Each structure stands twice: as structure tokens, then as C-alpha cells.
Fold this protein.
Amino acid sequence: MRKLGIVAGGGGLPAEIASRCARTGRPYFVVRLKGFADEATLGHPSAEIGLAELGKVFKTLRAEQCEAVCFAGTVARPDFGKLKPDIRGMAALPSIIAAGRKGDDGLLRAVLDEFRKEGFAIEGAHEAAASMTLPLGILGTVSPAESCGEDIQRALVAARAIGRLDIGQGAVVCHGLVLAVEAQEGTDAMLHRVRGLPEAVRGAPGRMAGVLAKAPKPIQSTDVDLPTIGVTTVRGAAQAGLAGIVGEAGRLLIVNREETEAMANDLGLFILGVEAKDE
């Protein structure tokens, strides 16, 4: 079993992957990205390293005998002018910045290429923690009403469409109307925007309606940046009056799955996994 290096951004996903490695006996080490990684990763074997200190990252991973690397958690697009790279980082930055001008997909591919050049295998979070992915069908006890069918399909079409344009991974549809699409602000902020819309166009407590769909960008490798939901997502969807959440089975990660499922059941939201669609 090859040792896994977890490059940790924000959110609960990195800590959950680390905890699963610990429980299953898989050797691992966490690189905590300075300014991004949550405190939840502090209890694991780890080192905190700056975002542009690639040389230090590679040296640390080799010293820990990591063979594979998994990128997990959120990292906001940096202000490249304020980064403090080491020598290896300085060598890589020009190509990374150039790729980043073409969108997030290009930026991520450029970063992955640097790790591959150093001999590390890239392992997706869905591979490192397969039990965290959304299964096919209903997760939990709440099923979508028949009237949700059109919104489910339209939200998935919208989410995949913005993914093809490298914009985001999520969309909200209610009664056939696209209420919001996700860009750089992220899912939580998008749901907050939906919550602020007039109740005439969205659902509300007691008459929940509409769907949040999340789908991976078709242009992007599933080795990194798969869409993710968790307790905060479910709570935000409920506050926005939505009836449920839909994603592609095997291509959406659920952080704190048991808590997320329980909250969805308690709030009366469905979580649905549909067949993945390759484009």
C-alpha cells in the first residue's frame, strides 16, 4: 500500500481522508497549505507549507516516503504577485500563471504536471476515500416528488454547461427557472444568494421547491476538484427553500456523510445520485 501525501486546503475533506487512512492502516502524511488548511488536520502527521513553496513540498513528501499525492479541500485563486515562492516554486510559476489565465482547469493541470514531473502519482479524493462518494439512487429517507423531475434534469444540464465553460460546478433551478449558477464565490455563497431572492420564485419552509445540482467540470480531470457537499451545503439548501440536492453517482464527495444524511432527513431534503454522464 503506497503512502499517500494529502495536500490539504480548506474545509473538512482533507481531515476526513486522513482519518480514513488512519482507520484503515494506510500510511499517510498531510501537507497543510498555509492560510487554507483547517485546524482539523492538526491532529494528523503534518507540516504547514506555503502555497508557492513547491521545493519544500516535494522535499517534505519525499522525506516522508510518499509515493502518491491527493489534493483535497478548497484553495482560493491566489494573488500571484503576493506569493512567496522558493526556488522550485519560482521555476514553476511562469507556466502555472500562464495556464491560470485560461481558467481554473488550466491552472490545476499545470500544478498537477509539476507533481508528476517529480515522480508522484496523482490520486483523486474519490479513490483515496471511495466510501465518501455519492451512491446511485436516494441517499437517506427522503425521495424527490414527481414534480421535481424537470428541475432535477434542468439543474444538471445547467451545472454541466457552466462546467464546460470552466465557470463552476453548481446550479439551482426552481420550477424550471435557473435561479443561480456557481462561479468563484462557491456553493455556500450561491445558496445564500438564492435565499435572498423573492419567495415568489423559490421555495420556502413548508413549501420547499427547487434543486441544487453539482457536477464535475467535463473538461477537468477527476483526479482533483470533484464537487463536494456536506452539512453546511444541506443547511444552506434548506434555508434557501430547496427540496433537494442531486449529483452524479461516484463523482460527488460527501463530507461527514452520516451527519449530512441525518440532517437532510431531519430537514426533509432529498439527496439523489444519478448516472454519471461523460461528455
Q: What stands out?
A: The CA atoms of residues 113 and 122 lie 10 Å apart. The longest strand covers residues 28-33.
